[in-house]
Amino acid sequence: MKKAAETLIKSFTCDTGGLLKALHALQYQHGYIDPALIPLVADTFNITKAEVKGVISFYEDFRGSPPGKHVIKVCQAEACQAVGAREITEKLRSKIGLPTDDLTCDTSATESVTVEPVFCLGLCSVAPAVSVNGELRGRVDAENFSSEIKALEEAG
């Protein structure tokens, strides 16, 4: 895996914005950026490990651990909050056994569902909005959505 990652990372060294492109490619390939690859990225781009970690932590789309089989992003921006996004988030987290008072990215104990709070999915006019495995949905109802989540969790 490390050799393949090295080849992938090196393919972006001459590109403008190569570091971001390499990190996106790593995440696309593996579903996350393995922390063990940070020294390799740093060496390849001739920057410090702290700089690489800074870029990864700055951008919300990068993750440092594998996501669940299903990734659910719930918009937390003002338009969605005004029409029930917090209730959706709390019901969702409760349904899959996560603390409801936390708004961090978290994965269920079964590792089948990852809940990710995000701050805009671009669907403000049809709030509240969620993304389920990349599929955008608007006007989400907390009750109906929680039964769908239960089905995802049970399907694994």
Features of the shown structure:
156 residues, alpha+beta, Glutaredoxin, five-stranded mixed beta sheet, 5 strands, elongated
What can you tell me about this protein's structure?
The chain is α+β, with helices and mostly antiparallel strands. The chain has 2 domains: 2-58, no CATH class; 70-155, 3-Layer(aba) Sandwich (Glutaredoxin). Helices cover 44% and strands 13% of the residues. The protein is built from 7 helices and 5 strands; from the N terminus they run H-H-H-H-E-H-H-E-E-E-E-H. It has helices at residues 2-10, 18-30, 38-45, 49-58, 78-81, 85-95, 142-155, and strands at 70-75, 106-107, 113-118, 130-132, 135-137. A 5-stranded mixed beta sheet has the order 2-3-1-4-5. A hairpin with a 2-residue loop joins strand 4 (130-132) and strand 5 (135-137). Helix 1 (2-10) packs antiparallel against helix 2 and helix 3 crosses helix 4. The longest helix has 14 residues, at 142-155. The two termini are 26 Å apart.
